[in-house]
Structure formats: C-alpha cells, structure tokens
Amino acid sequence: MMDYVNNKFDCIVVGAGHAGCEAAVSCARLGARVLLCSLNIDNIALMPCNPAIGGPAKSTLVREIDALGGVMGEVADATYIQMKTLNSSKGPAVRALRAQSDKRQYSDYMRNLIEGIENIHLRQACITDLLVKDGKVCGVIDEFGIEYTAPVAILTTGTSLAGKIFVGLRSYDAGRLGEKSAIGLSDSLRSHGIILKKLKTGTPPRVDKRTIDYSKMTIQPGDEELSFYSFKPNRPIRPQYPCYLTRTNEKTHEIIRANLDKSPMFKGLIQGVGPRYCPSIEDKVVRFSENPSHHIFIEPEGLGNYEMYIQGFSSSLPADVQVKMLRTLPGLEHAHVIKPAYAVEYDYVPALQTTHSLMSKAVKGLFFAGQINGTSGYEEAAAQGLIAGINAMQYLNNSEMLELPRSSSYIGTLIDDLVTKDIQDPYRMLTSRSEYRLLLRQDNADFRLTPIGHKIGLIDDAQFKIFTQKQEDIEKELQRCRDAKISPTDDVKNILAKYGESIERGMKISELLKRPNLNYNIIKELDTTTKELNIPKDVFEQVEILIKYEGYLKRQEFQVEQSGKLEKYRIPDDIDYSKIDHISSETRDKLEKIRPKNLAQASRIGGVKPADISVLMVMLEKHSIARVIQE
Fold first, then answer.
1. Taking a C-beta distance cutoff of 8 angstroms, is the pair 239, 100 a contact?
2. 307 and 208 Cβ atoms separated by less than 8 Å
3. pLDDT single digits (tens) 258-308
4. Number of Cβ atoms within 10 Å of the Cβ of 147
5. CA-to-CA distance for 367 and 155, rounded, in angstroms?
6. What are the structural domains of the chain?
7. Which residue from 260, 390, 266 is spatially nearest to 325, judged by alpha carbons?
8. Among 593, 585, 590, 565, which residue's Cα sits nearest to residue 355?
C-alpha cells in the first residue's frame, strides 16, 4: 500500500460541497490541519441545482451560519446577481431573504477563500475506504490506494455516494451531470455497521437565454433597498438582474401524461424516495391533476454564460420529450436546451444513527453532514457542515459537544428532527417545522448565536465588538421609544389620518408602534427627534419587532421555559429500556435505537406517546431520589 509522510492530518473532510466547505473552514480556523477531498476540485461549492441561496426558513439558516462564524452568508453576499426579500408584507417570522447567485463566481469565491487558509490541504481524490481501529476512525483510503490518517473524518458526499443519474430509461453512474460517482465507500461504511438507504433528487434543464422570448413572461425584479446575509459590515453593492415567470398549460400536461411510461420513477427503476416539497413536473401533473397550470421561474445561472435555470421544471423524462414540454411554455417556444433535466439516486445514512453532535454512534470520530444525512438543500447542508466541523474539534480537544437545542435556532431544529425522527424523504427546512419560529427569525440570528460563535473561537473580537455595540444601540432606542411621547398636534393628526389612524392625547412611541398600521418609518414622519437620530435599519427593525410583537414573544418564551423542564430530566447513558415496565415494546425499540439524552428529546421521537414520557419521568424521579439517598 502506498503511503506518504505528509498524509497525516487532524481532520479529513470527504466532499467539498456546501457542507464540506463549512466543515473544513471551521476546523482549520480552530487550528486543525485539514485534508479536504473532492471528486473534482474545479467544482468546489458547486450549485448543481438552483443557483440561489435562501428563501423561506433557509434564509434563517444562512444567517445562523454567519452568526456562528460560518462562511455561506459572506460568499452569497459577494456573488449575488439578485437580492429579494420574500413575504415582506407578512410577519417577521416568515420574511425571508433570497439571493440569486452567480454560480461560477460563488464556487470560485469559496475556492479562493479555502485556498487562502493555510491549514486546509485540497486533494482531488475519490475516497473508497474508511479506516477504523477499536471502534474509532483513524483515516481513509482513496481509489489509488493512498492512505490518509486522521483521528477525525467528516463525510459530506452529497449525491455522489453510489450515485446514478437517470434521463428517461437510460442511466449511468454519476453523482451529478459531468461528474463521476463515488463507488466503494458505501460498502466500507456497511462493513462497520452503518446502515445505508437510497434517496432520489433531481434538477431541471438549462436553456440558452438567447432563445427565450421574455416579452411573453412576467418580469421578477430584485429589491431596490438591499438586505444581506452576513452580519459583517460593508457588504458589496452589485448590479441586479431580473428573473422571469411563465406557466405550464394543458398542452404541457398532455405531453407529460402521454410519456409517463418513459419515466424511470413511474416505471419503478428508481427505488429512492424523492423530495416531497420539490417534486418533478411529471409528479406535479399526476398528483395535482386538478391544477390547470404550474408556475415556472426562469432564472440566470450567472453573468459569464448563457444558461438559464428553469425552476419548477425538474424532470427525469427523456431528453427529446423535455424539449417538447419546454416549447409549450410561453416564451420558450424556440428554446435551445443546453443541459437536460435528470434525476439522481444515491446512498445516504439515516441520521438516527448519529448523535446531536452529528457523530456516528457506531464509529467514534466519524461525522456525517449534508445530503448523506437525508437532507435536501445547500443551506441545510452548510448548517450541518459547520456543526460537524465545530464538534470534530470539540471531540479532538475532549471538550463538550455543541448541541444546539430546538429553542435556540433552526439549526438546532434541523438536527433534532434528523436524529430523532425516522425521516423517509429528503428533509427540507420549513418555518412550520419550528414551534418557536416567532423567536427564531432571520433578523435576530446574531442575537441568538453570535455569543456562542465567539466563545467557540469562530467569531473574532472585532466582529463581536460590532455585535455588542448593536445590542447596546437596540436597548437604548428601545428604552427611548418607551419613554418619549408624541403630542397630538395638527401636523401629527394629519399624518396619522393618511394611514387611517388618529390620536387624541400624548402617546408614547412604543404605544403607537403597537398599532398594525404604523411602523418606525411613519414614526420618523411624526417625530423630529426620531428622524434626526438616524437610527440604522438593522437597529430600528429590531426595536419595532420587539415592541409590536411583545405579547406574542413573551408567550413563546413561556413555551420555551415550559419545554425546558423536560430538558432537565437527563436520561442515564447506561439505561436499559428493556427493563422498564408499563411502556410499549414499540417505544422501547425506538428509545433503544435513538437513545435520547433527556425527556424533551424522547418526547419528540415519532411513535413515543405522552403516557410513555410520564412513565419515564416517574422512573427518573425515583432514580434521582435513590441516588441522593445513597449519597
């Protein structure tokens, strides 16, 4: 076997997608010597599907990544070609920033960032074997038999693990179009007691933008007033480019229905379950047959090419059928297809086999992050990569693992769902998945997580000083709004009348801000002092939210407090569930399989009933009393 002296590392990251990049950067910045392996180093942080970052719930993940010291937000801000806030007219819990990215620039920026970190060593390599000794990972072997050693490995293989691409009834081994499949590692994982299953995802076709008639479509511009992902100052101002909207029609649907026998999904050639919230166009037409049409968004892939992404048109039908379908859409009658749509089936590791730290229960020092855990989406992958990287370093340093509770973040919710629920299809983060979504907004991610990032060492002192100053400014302005009054002058009454409001007595600014029709910008019209203070947008937005939603926020904070009571019931690591009476055998099996750390985690396991939790609570209370008596 070949061996090289310099092939000894502190951490090996397998896969350089969004999860792998966050894992490698966090480990390296915390002092580790990192090997980052990629099937193709020209495709680092590639966006093989939609070239966009953010959207509902996902934007909160990106802000949380940035608040902890990750890099996705910085890269998205540096390479956007459109920024747009979705649901801007709705409440703050569902507002979401979305960046249409330049696909090539995003990848190049991330590669330059990685290559600028001395501790990261890039290697183009296909890892085929995992080295394990005494139940602990100790390295990996690539397809050429080269051995790399490290006490920690993070697998972020995306869709490459035994990946197979389907276009119609034709298929071939590949993780994504133009890139080979990672063969061999799946068998190695199974040999170490790790269970693998299959999932499926897909991507739409790309067409030449010069063959599109945009006059038949509805233009979708970006925001005039920009927002950004990163909490760092001085975000770049870049030109914005529009997207476009068209729709399918009955003719499109007729072609799809007539060719279902050529779909690998409908023929049973693909066994993996596809993403529930991002189905193929043929799946939409069959499942939602009552819908006469479906939205299709036409989005640029970047400034340096002619490719346009056909969002909402994912398919695995034959290439010639795809062309016929596309040319029924208004504006795409003469579209030239550059890349066909395709489906990809791949191996993944159900995350019930990992702890909340994302470390394998079967092999110590082995972490999983991204689509290998059964998720879908760049943002979900990056969030897991960051946590896996942080915890890889915590493991190396024999420190306490970072396990974010659900009440702290969407990242905590994401990981808790993965490791406690038997998820059957690719997991996508949604605002509805969080019971604390009013507290876990994209706008306050820094307030929730920056102190943690600073404590870990990924947020430097300069950035932490900016954060603390912002918090001081919010508190100061919050107090001023609670103290300062606005008098009912004629000018004030006239301005309020424009917004359907009135005032008969002097009122505090905070009282006025609680009214649904009024906001901070209107207060500037009413009050000279507020206007002259020129409070930064990120500060006054927080002030407005904290005042306007005060009652709702307090109610949710109470829910967190109540839930926290179950967190305090710690379950011993050596507990034998088979000896616990009065709980069902199904519950015993699930508790034994997942081995939750506390009652709160146990209560979220699918199939575990409230009555079972009550039995466990009584048992733990008796155990605690007995232990106290003995002591």
1. no
2. yes
3. 999 999 888 788 888 887 778 899 999 998 999 999 999 999 999 999 999
4. 17
5. 6
6. 206-345 (2.40.30.260), 461-555 (1.10.10.1800), 568-630 (1.10.150.570)
7. 260
8. 593
